[in-house]
Design a protein that fits this description.
About 65% of the residues lie in helices and about 0% in strands. The chain has one domain. It is globular and about 40 Å long.
Length: about 110
């Protein structure tokens, strides 16, 4: 929630963002899909392209997107794709996984 609030308020305090990134990476495996999506979204408005954080989000998201019991909803898929596009981070494996997950879940849109 803190990352989202910082993004919404356009806060650019780099030590705070670095602390959020470190805490997020330490807990990446236990974060909900919505948290992964929100954190990536929060990085985008100020182009906070912390590549270790974005790589960790991408890796965890791809694992979940390829699972049978995927926990990303349509908004999570679109927010994550938008965030990486907004930051101009080309992560083809992530976008491929998001695309495949969207196709599999078209019935729920």
């Amino acid at each position: 929630m803190t990352a989202w609030a910082c993004a919404k308020l356009l806060i650019t305090h780099l030590p705070l963002r670095a602390a959020i990134a470190a805490a997020s990476m330490a807990r990446i495996a236990v974060l909900a899909a919505q948290n992964l999506s929100n954190i990536s979204w929060a990085c985008a408005p100020r182009q906070y392209d912390n590549m270790p954080l974005l790589n960790a989000i991408s890796s965890e998201a791809r694992t979940r997107l390829n699972a049978e019991d995927m926990d990303f909803d349509a908004q999570g898929l679109s927010n994550t794709a938008w965030a990486y596009a907004r930051m101009m981070v080309r992560d083809t494996p992530l976008i491929d996984a998001i695309s495949a997950a969207a196709i599999r879940s078209l019935h729920s849109f």
